[in-house]
Design a protein that fits this description.
heterodimer, A: 218 residues, elongated, B: 6-stranded antiparallel β-barrel, 26 strands, 14% helix
Chain lengths: 218, 432
């Protein structure tokens, strides 16, 4: 127990170096001196978040052949980059950080795996602003964020099943066509990000914790 | 209010500092609808043209030209510090502190100046800044970046605090309007860049890729905009008055409950339209409006966002004070976008006969006749709706009444007796 506590303490101190401060350098449109910067009201941000997730949900088309390398056939490169960017912004925002925080070291919109792991680690360890988090978690849930996230997860089930069935039959990932592999990787990445958003929307919520206590006492 | 009278009043309106406006493109009509200067602003900062369905994203406030010299000096010093290492760190820190102080003072001065000039007229030729209401950002051009559709033009975005490239000059389109003339509602004008003479806010002639809204960029070619004053600056001076397009909650003080929209529980994660294999499945509507319940429910310490409503006037292009004696309003549910309506429905009785019955319901159709409600302020001499006053909601002599109690929740019905109507209190939602 002592060792675990120590590890957590070290990780927490490390997480200070990963603080998500608005990074003026990474965003040429961001004014680093903006003491007077007003963040948009939470109620509008929550509505915008759900609007975009709904948009991306409606864009999903599960390919019926093995020659379609995407689940968003109508999306272009900027749409995909935008999704990658906002998925992390949403998680950070719900946790209590400003929506404008430029937290991701993007390399032309592609987030490195190491950076992604660090960000997730940060999300787990750093509490952000607790008061804001509780209000935001509630707001986004009332706006239907969990519903749309679960719909996305549900819509991607055929792809997960495809991979599982192939594994059951002893087939390797390489047995899929190149296009299918790309499509599966894409679906996997989207799933990861959506699950991260779901996690941030329910993590440490006092109401849910209370419910959990009730369930466990039965 | 008759349309003629509304137009007459509107034409006498002149543009003021602090007015909330929309800019309609004279040339472009998107999907058969009027198109407005638009930006989502919160996650995407680019400027586009959009129809009136996104009107909340099309509202801009007229702000005074803000000064940015201290901000620029601070930025330049911080940029140079990254490059020069041989400076004495103590002196540099002191200098930085002084610059930051200057910067904060500049913000304060800008805000004070804006407060002083609030409600003062704006004239043709004046330099202003356009402040996006929803996101709280200023329009500005990015001199070094090209627009994404018309690569020969410069990119325009929404910026957190603006800079000299946010300064816009209002220029007349017609010769009848001259520089230093006041700017009336409905007039056509150009939005020029103060820092780059001869460049204007321009709507791209080239189409965007399918599914995307038309781009707005900065070009040498001028685009004319029709100015629509949505809400006058003077309307918001009395904070006790309710304004159209505000987010409110409707409270029943007798039961200490809020008027809410109870959404049906999610039973199926599948998309009913796309997922349907046969005709029957395809005909399934996502969720029928009848499944939504209008209820009165007590709220906890935090107000549930299902209790939030947006007050709209019949003419969605107009905001400001609500004259409840002459105007009908619509109550739009904030979370779902559905309108509260008093509607006629056919009810089957026990003996099998069918009877007309009025009921409270919701609808997606903004133009539905049943949405037009009267909000009557009780025992009031004021013509305009106030916050915190007893208000009855009705339509054509049918009043919103309290229904049966089910655990802690009351149902809502309607009846013809004003005496049995609920006296609601409408309060403004306090943003955080």
């Amino acid at each position: 127990m002592f060792i675990i506590n120590n590890i957590i303490a070290i990780l927490k101190s490390l997480s200070k170096f990963l603080r998500f401060e608005p990074d003026a350098g990474s965003n040429p449109h961001h004014n680093e001196n903006s003491i007077d910067v007003k963040e948009p009201y939470d109620i509008f941000t929550a509505a915008t978040i759900t609007f975009y997730l709904n948009l991306y949900y409606k864009m999903i088309v599960i390919p019926i052949d093995d020659s379609t390398p995407t689940i968003w056939p109508k999306a272009d490169r900027t749409d995909i980059e935008f999704f990658q960017n906002i998925a992390l912004k949403i998680s950070n925002y719900i946790t209590g950080f400003p929506i404008s925080a430029e937290d991701v070291d993007t390399n032309n919109g592609i987030i490195s795996t190491l950076n992604y792991i660090l960000i997730i680690l940060k999300l787990i360890l750093d509490k952000g602003d607790d008061k804001k988090r509780i209000i935001r978690q509630r707001l986004v849930r009332e706006k239907g964020l969990l519903e749309v996230c679960l719909k996305i997860v549900n819509k991607l089930i055929p792809i997960t099943e495809k991979v599982e069935n192939a594994e059951k039959l002893g087939q390797k990932f390489s047995s899929f066509s190149d296009d299918e592999q790309t499509m599966i990787k894409m679906a996997n990445e989207i799933l990861q990000r959506i699950l991260q958003i779901i996690f941030s929307a329910i993590k440490n919520d006092p109401v849910l914790i209370l419910l959990n206590i009730k369930f466990s006492s039965r | 209010m008759s349309k003629e009278k509304e137009t007459e009043i509107a034409q006498t309106k002149k543009l003021m500092i602090g007015d909330i406006v929309t800019f309609q493109s004279v040339k472009w009509i998107e999907n058969g609808d009027e198109s407005f200067l638009y930006s989502e602003g919160i996650l995407k900062g680019d400027l586009r043209l959009s129809g009136s369905d996104c009107l909340d994203d099309c509202k801009f406030a007229i702000h005074l030209q803000r000064q940015y010299s201290a901000a620029r000096e601070l930025k330049e010093f911080q940029d140079s510090q990254d490059k020069i290492d041989d400076e004495d760190p103590v002196i540099a820190a002191k200098y930085l502190q002084a610059l930051k102080r200057g910067y904060i003072n500049e913000i304060q001065l800008n805000n004070d100046y804006m407060q002083k000039k609030y409600g003062k007229p704006v004239l043709f030729g004046d330099i202003i800044q356009l402040y996006h209401i929803k996101s709280g950002k200023y329009i500005k051009i990015i001199p070094g970046e090209l627009a994404s559709v018309e690569r020969e033009n410069i990119k325009i975005v929404l910026s957190d605090s603006g800079d000299p490239y946010s300064w816009l000059q209002i220029l007349p389109r017609f010769k009848i309007d001259r520089i230093t003339d006041p700017i009336p509602h409905g007039t056509e004008l150009y939005l020029g860049l103060a820092e780059r003479a001869g460049e204007f806010l321009h709507v791209a002639d080239r189409d965007s890729i399918q599914g995307q809204k038309r781009e707005v960029n900065c070009s040498l070619e001028a685009t004319s905009w029709k100015l629509n004053i949505f809400q006058a600056a003077t309307d918001s001076t009395d904070t006790k008055k309710l304004l159209a397009s505000e987010i409110v909650y409707v409270y029943d003080p007798e039961t200490r409950c809020y008027l809410m929209l109870g959404c049906p529980p999610l039973e199926n994660l599948d998309d009913p339209v796309e997922g349907g294999q046969n005709e029957e499945e395809k005909e399934q509507a996502p969720t029928s409006d009848e499944e939504y319940r209008i209820i009165l429910e007590p709220a906890g310490a935090l107000i549930d966002s299902s209790a939030l409503w947006v007050i709209e006037l019949d003419n969605s292009l107009r905001g400001g004070l609500i004259n409840y004696k002459t105007e009908k309003v619509k109550l739009k549910h904030f979370n779902t976008g559905k309108y509260l309506a008093i509607d006629l429905s056919l009810q089957e009785l026990d003996d099998g006969s069918i009877e007309d019955q009025y009921q409270i319901t919701v609808t997606d159709d903004a133009d539905f006749e049943g949405n037009r409600l009267s909000l009557t302020e009780m025992n009031s001499n004021s013509s305009f709706l106030n916050i915190g006053k007893a208000v009855q909601i009705s339509r054509n002599g049918l009043f919103v009444e309290r229904g049966e109690l089910d655990e802690k929740t009351y149902s809502v019905s309607c009846g013809t007796e004003s005496a049995s109507a609920i006296n609601f209190v409408i309060n403004r939602y306090v943003y955080h």
